Amino acid sequence: MPVFDKFKERVMTMVPMPRTNVPFAPLGVTINRLDSLFDQFFGEDGESTRNGRPRAGGPVSLWHDEENVYVEAELPGVEEKDVEATIHEGVLVIKANRQPVEGRTYLYNSRSFGHLERAIVLPELVDSDRVEATLSAGVLRLVMPKHPASRPRKITLKSS
Hints:
This protein has 2 domains: about 5-40, no CATH class; about 50-150, Immunoglobulin-like, CATH 2.60.40.790. Helices cover about 20% and strands about 30% of the residues. It has 2 helices and 9 strands, in the order H-H-E-E-E-E-E-E-E-E-E. The chain has helices spanning about 5-15, 25-40, and strands at about 50, 55, 60-65, 70-75, 85-90, 90-100, 115-120, 130-135, 140-145. The protein has a 4-stranded antiparallel beta sheet with strand order 3-4-9-8, with no helix packed on it. The radius of gyration is 26 Å and the shape is elongated.
């Protein structure tokens, strides 16, 4: 195969890039694509909803031991009065509202504001009357004691 044909084959398999007269244009395209991904995830100009629905919120951790089920949810910039957590039929729902600072005229704002909501199916039944919740340093922590009926129980055998 002649050298030109090998070159032609490589050129045909390259990823097309937009043409522009600006130096380092491919870098700009990459940055614009990253900005677009961030906007899709965090919202454009502080919006926190897409299609009128609340955003899912930040990262959440869920784990358990023999006694409790634990949840930690990151809610940076959310005040305690703007957080609501409920448990109904084995589902934990965390709702929060993050408000922008009043009186500011933003030149640029990529932080999200508005209503956040997350529903988590709990792995076991919990005693909702004994749940403890704290909000510290932007992290909501819930300790949910397992319902006695969901805890393992040793059954003694009777000899016949």
